[in-house]
Amino acid sequence: VPKLHCLVGETIKMGADNPDNLYQSAPLLHNISYVLKGVRGTVKYLSIGTQKGHYGKRAGLPPVAFIDASQLKYFEKIPIEFVQKYDIAMDDETGTSVSNQRYFEIVISTTQPSSRVLNANNWNWLKLDSEEDGTLIVRQTFGLREKEKQAILCLERLDDKQFDAESGFEEDEKRSMEAHTKSFAQPQPLTPKTVDDALQSAASLVCGAGLMFSRWAQTMRSD
After folding, report:
1. Confidence at 155, pLDDT banded by 50, 70, 90
2. CA dist 177 to 38, 118, 159, 171, 174, Å?
3. What is the secondary structure of 106-119 as a DSSP string?
């Protein structure tokens, strides 16, 4: 499962990144279904989106789907498994969420579960492109960084346990979603060509980003 990572931040700068933002991203395979689990935190603004392609793999990353914190459906309680994994402080023993600890889950897939399934599981949904691998993009914007808590996010594959009877999936929906989660081939052995392709991709990212920000500067000068 890919991990969310920071491409730019307080110590890694690239072009015109916003110093008040926390940028996170993760590569996604189009033939895999994922679920992003998270606690909202108190950060001023939170947005999550999917885009076509990976950094350094194509010219531009066209958006596919987008959602921000104001559009999310939240759970009444934070699951105890999530609390234990991330050592989240709760207000009381019942696990009732409070305004700054709202919990959510987002299914990320090429096929949208039915409204009945989404409502039964209190899931949100983001679309993946059906033909091209993509990128998950997260932006968290702070008003007062020292006083606000960032969202805690965990990306997982949508596994067989989440297709049980309680999930509300009809048999045809289960087959469609499971087909994506099981079609992923095991990683191939590392080869010199794989390494060379990865280095070429990194070089393309550095070159492409530099050209893009240079064009931005030239445009702003002319304006």
Report:
1. very high
2. 22, 13, 10, 10, 5
3. EEEESSPPPHHHHH
